[in-house]
Amino acid sequence: MPIVRRAALIGALSSVLAVVAVATVAAMPGARAWAANAPGGVSTYAPEPEPTTPSGTEPTTSTSKAIIVRGRAIAPLNAPLAVKKVIAAANKIRAKPYIWGGGHAKWWDAGYDCSGAVSYALHGGALISSPLPSGPMESWGLPGKGRWITVYANAGHAYAVIAGLRWDTAGNTSGTGPRWHESTAAAASGRFVARHPEGY
After folding, report:
1. Do the beta carbons of residue 66 and residue 165 sit within 8 Å?
2. What pTM does this model have?
């Protein structure tokens, strides 16, 4: 058989096999729902459905402190808009895994490290323009605790207390990555420098 004819036969066979594979996957139960939610490529990640709220708003609580509902922080009703945006941004990545260096090369990442998660949340409220490692966070903003937001940093770790909840990659009971915590006490050891954004 000539080479050109053999190549054409192999190409045709490959095309038929590709169509059969796509048809098989499409016929699987739940394939359409999975394909509609997939961001592209092959993934087994199924995002948690977002609660239904009016466009551009987040739910709020009437208490003076944020609360955690199913892993999501709910901002206090009296919180400033920037604080609500910080909480909303953090909620978007609250189930992402811990990845060292995550959130530093790009805002939306596959996972986040401690300072990448804090940077992402602050960026949501337009309080930081580029991600910072934990060391430089020791001199970010103004010294001391803030009324709404306090960033705690040292050379090896950073976390934030936002509206009375701790936003941290340390101290998780299951899995790793950025999560909300009721306790505001540091889960990591060491001395931390407290900093806050001006006005918050």
Report:
1. yes
2. 0.69
